[in-house]
Amino acid sequence: MRLPCPYCGDRDAQEFSYRGDAGPRRPEGEDGLFDYVYLRDNPAGPIRELWYHANGCRNWIVVTRDTRTHEVHGSSLARESGA
Amino acid sequence: MRYSVFSLSANALSGHRRWKRVWRDAEPAEAYDVVIVGGGGHGLATAHYLARNHGITNVAVIEKGWIGGGNAGRNTTIIRSNYGLPGNEPFYEWSMKLWEGLEQDLNYNVMVSQRGIVNLYHSDAQRDAYARRGNAMRLHGVDAELLSSDDVRKLAPFLDFESARFPIMGGLYQGRAGTARHDAVVWGYARAASQRGVDIIQNCEVTGFVQDSAGAIVGVETTRGAIRAGKVGLAVAGNSSRVAALAGLRLPIESHVLQAFVSEGLKPVIPGVITFGAGHFYISQSDKGGLVFGGDIDGYNSYAQRGNLPVVEDVCEGGMAVMPMIGRARILRSWGGIMDMSMDGSPIIDASPLPGLYLNAGWCYGGFKATPASGWCFAHLLATDRSHETATAFRLDRFESGHLIDEKGAGAQPNLH
User: Fold this and answer.
1) Which of B307, B342, B377 is the last residue of a domain?
2) What pLDDT, on a 0 to 100 scale, did the predictor assign at position B237?
3) Spatial contact of B270 and B157, defined as CB atoms under 8 Å apart
4) What is the rounded distance in angstroms from the CA atom of residue B2 to the CA atom of residue A66?
5) Is A2-81 CATH 3.90.25.10?
6) Does A82 score more than 80 pLDDT?
7) Mind telling me how many Å the CA of B163 is from chain A's nearest CA?
8) Whole-prediction pTM value?
9) Does A42 sit within 8 Å of B253, measured CB to CB?
10) Average pLDDT over residues B194-213
């Protein structure tokens, strides 16, 4: 599997660390913290997910990928997509 | 019909043409006391124990494909009870005890083969950790033995003991562990449940839930029509989140792909199950002779039932590091199964927040060994609305209350368990 890093271009997925669904937002207070830490939509289909380009540019990126086929639909820098 | 030496002889003499189907391929009825979603090992075991232990026989097991076609057919068939934490160990030991009597209970040869498991250690720190785990097992009355390097040499002389980086210093041994035949487990439970009146309904996928005005679950919508149910139990492994989402629930689970491999058939070379302590690699030999082995999950969310090549390379490197002779064997097949990886690496057997809906999920990649006890305890929960004494820790609300069962201490990141 190759991931399109917005900074480095198409790179082997082995260069990245996976951090899962990019959807959950850390809440300000304790309310919603349990949901944020533990609960996931876990969709079968397209998912926006966080990858860290550890062995590359060290950017956090958001990749849109289909969990049924592993097909990658695009990516953006996490700081620019508000993740 | 009961299997016996006489029935085998009689059928052998008649050319094996008179064997009957061992379970009924049923049509869905309008309503059942209990509907179990998922016709894998766990679902069928649940149906069997509902009928056998609790006398509840008006039960349907509904399966979207064919029984045993999911993770029951995509595992590495290892059975063991060498866990460290008090929430886990009594449950897995109960499962081990059920495996030991399963063939007599089911009157079916599930090929339980207790050839032992050895978890190798490669450093002083790892020996200490394994000694601690072994002691925890013995405190729960489970067999565990700390082997020296010489002991392991007698057991498996073909391992690479003198590796400069990962010398084999010994291992934690559980002699009662071993393997069982995955298909036979499914068929054995299906036959036993069917004989007691359970309907096994294939090609019947759940598309939604029927709720009453108070919000309780009172049935399932399926591709073969609506089926009303007193209680609905989910045992759908890697699809737990998807099916729960149909009822509006979000679970502390991510689905990940785990690959496994089998070599061409070889003469007996491996005495039991061996796990590499310096990488993630485990191997056993099937009764047919194939070396069955695997390692880490791929590490990203997936429902694809196939993985990628880096993990293939990683698993094979682990194999070569601990057991160089494996380099002479050719890989015959590989497969990927979808694991419902929970947030602490341990399973959930509990009522859901919705009345009438019960969960059996989050088995990560340890579901096969748990099959008998999972069925036993889920049946107990469905029948009595109370957790079985060995499964009281597998609560859904433990993530919120902080009572996690995290064997690895990896935290709330499913791909690290």
Assistant:
1) B342
2) 96
3) no
4) 48
5) no
6) no
7) 26
8) 0.96
9) yes
10) 98
Distance CA A2, CA B366 (A): 29
Phi and psi angles of residue A81, each rounded to the nearest 5 degrees, phi first: -100, 10
Domain boundaries, position B188: 24-108+181-252+344-416
Q: Phi/psi of residue B184, each to 5°?
A: -65, -35
Query: Which tokens in the block code for residue B120?
Result: 């190798």
Q: Are residues B148 and B243 in the same domain?
A: no
Between CA B243 and CA A50 the distance in angstroms is: 25
Q: A40 contacts in B (CB within 8 Å)? A: 241, 250-254
Same domain, B215 and B260: no
Residue with tokens 């492994």: B237
Question: Same domain for B395 and B261?
Answer: no
B400/A40 Cβ within 8 A? no
B149 belongs to a structural domain: yes
Identify the CATH number of the domain in which residue B95 sits: 3.50.50.60
pLDDT by residue (tens digit) across A56-74?
A: 999 999 999 999 999 999 9
pLDDT confidence bin for B67, thresholds 50/70/90: very high
Q: Give yes or no: residues B104 and B186 share one domain.
A: yes
Q: Interface pTM (ipTM) of the complex?
A: 0.96
- If interface means Cβ-Cβ distance under 8 Å, which residues of chain A face chain B? 1, 12-14, 18-21, 34-35, 37-44, 47, 49, 65, 67-70
Total number of domains in chain B: 2
> Is the pLDDT at B289 greater than 80, yes or no?
yes
Residue B3, domain member (yes or no): no
Chain B residue with the nearest C-alpha to that of A45:
B303
Q: Which residues of B touch A65 (CB under 8 A)?
A: 300
Q: How far is B75 from chain A (nearest CA, A)?
A: 20
**Of residues B250, B300, B303, nearest to A41 (C-beta):** B250
d(CA B29, CA A26) in angstroms, rounded, equals 47
